[in-house]
Specification:
Blueprint lengths: L11 H24 L11 H26 L11 H29 L6 E3 L3 E3 L9 H32 L5 H5 L6
Antiparallel strand pairs: 1-2
Length: 184
């Protein structure tokens, strides 16, 4: 398999970025959902949020790499069977997924830095608090983070269902291309 995308399939780098982001988003959502129910006396009360923040910041960096990669190695050409509406929906859907991911991560950053403290990433390095002092920053960013996280997971599920629809109903190679298999 080639590293870069071709006109007929995604390359290894795009595929790895896609699936690593997918696993990270599902994992972060599950961890976030679980940790908001923790009590002060839970042994995970401080650890779970630290893990969530660290993975979230690493995901932010990975998404920045993914965005740059998207411009350096364009994806495969649309399939001939995809009409104008499908092509527009694909572009809009991917745009919303990228926008949603960045918005969720930025709102998470704003929650974590509202008090002016930096965020430690697995004790490897710290990300400074650059934006603080917005009135009700933590509360507003928290609501945005929660609602966008739900919207992102639901929209990601629809994205997966669309890929399965292309594979099983339309019988085209949309899903195969993201799995590294060339058009046939």
């Amino acid at each position: 398999m080639q590293l870069r995308n071709s006109t007929s399939q995604y390359g290894l780098i795009s595929i790895l970025l896609h699936w690593v982001v997918t696993v990270a988003v599902i994992g972060l959502f599950a961890l976030g959902y679980w940790m908001v129910g923790l009590t002060y006396y839970s042994s995970w009360y401080r650890t779970a949020p630290d893990i969530h923040k660290s993975i979230g910041l690493i995901l932010f960096a990975l998404m920045a790499v993914r965005l740059v990669w998207r411009f350096l190695s364009h994806g495969p050409a649309p399939l001939p069977s995809h009409g104008r509406v499908t092509r527009l929906a694909t572009k809009a859907g991917h745009g919303l997924l990228y926008l949603g991911l960045f918005a969720v991560m930025i709102s998470g950053y704003l929650i974590s830095t509202a008090d002016g403290r930096a965020i430690s990433v697995f004790d490897w390095f710290e990300v400074p608090a650059l934006i603080t002092g917005i009135p009700d920053q933590e509360d507003i960013a928290g609501l945005v983070h929660e609602y966008l996280a739900w919207a992102l997971v639901i929209f990601s599920g629809l994205h997966a269902l669309a890929a399965l629809k292309h594979h099983f109903i339309d019988r085209d190679s949309t899903l195969k291309r993201m799995l590294g298999r060339a058009d046939t």
